[in-house]
Design a protein that fits this description.
By secondary structure, the chain is of the alpha+beta class. Among the domains are: 91 residues, no CATH class; 101 residues, Beta Barrel (OB fold (Dihydrolipoamide Acetyltransferase, E2P)), CATH 2.40.50. The protein is built from 8 helices and 11 strands. Strand 1 and strand 2 form a beta hairpin. The longest helix has 65 residues. The termini are far apart. About 7% of the residues have low confidence.
Amino acid sequence: MAKEKERIELRSVDETDNRQSRLFRLHKDAVEEVENLPAVRVGEKLLPEARLEAASKDELKTRSNEPDVGSLIEMSVENEEAQWETPVEAKGLPWGWMALVACAFAAGIIWSLVEVGRSDHRRDGLLDEAKTILEKEKDEEMEAETMIASIEKVVEDFYDSRSVDELLRYVRHPERVKSFMDKHYGDKPPVPMRVRGILSLDPLTIENRATFWMVVCEIEGGGSGQLLVEALSPKLAKVDWETFVCYQPMEWDRFAKERPGGYNGDFRVYVEADNFYSHEFADSELFACFRLTALGGEEVLYGYVNRATPLARKLESLVAENNGQAIPMILSLYVPEGARSKRGVAIRKLVAPRWMFMDSPEVGSE
């Protein structure tokens, strides 16, 4: 049997339970209880009787003031477009930042201008420096050409000289070597020769002085000559006559054979360490011994010097620095009176550690 449908109606509530209603507010991160409220009593005294009935068709037709869905959509779109069209208030850039940007921009421009000026200055400086270098190189080149020309000229004039007086114009230390020239040439004046050409011209540095040149030239008619030349200036050069003739106060072989007692002279010799001891110079602990030879000579002499003297140590040092090989020197040699040694001579002084003088010694010294 079908269950009867219950009639739906509103009924007044005379009695309610005594439970209290509680009100809560929901927050994002918490729940807040507002207060405890008594339950609302609904009855005849509070509300009129209410009926739930369906509305008639006529009443439905009269509800034309309610918007449909299309109008709601249009209204929504219009409201949004209106919001889009509403101008947004632009926030201006603070004046402090604007001033800072302007200062930075101005500083950049000033720095660029300064750098341009500096680069122009540096460029001008480099150009001036390059110009100076080029001018200096040009001057040095011209100076070298002038010096070479003066060296060639003095060599030609030296070989072409016909007398001692003429030779003195072209030689180093003319006041000192004049007496040596007179002795060397005697009654036979120098024979003039013509230079055909310069074979080589090499610079020499002696005792930190780069003013010397070794010149080898070809002589007309055959043969060659070798000269040591000092360039005193680009336009002035002089020939070292003493090394040209290897000047000796006495012919070496004659001196070695005759060994005149009491004679003292400055000889250009080759010096080597040796151990030949005899007669007056037999004590090897007392004397240092050196073997002496000369350019163009055949005779050999032995020079002795006391080992305890600075002279002996100097000679030993010079020979050792030359790896024990013969080294050219100018030595003052002395033959003792009544010497029994046939080849022994005493070394009195180291006149020069080479066969030429850097500066002229006292006039008249031999």
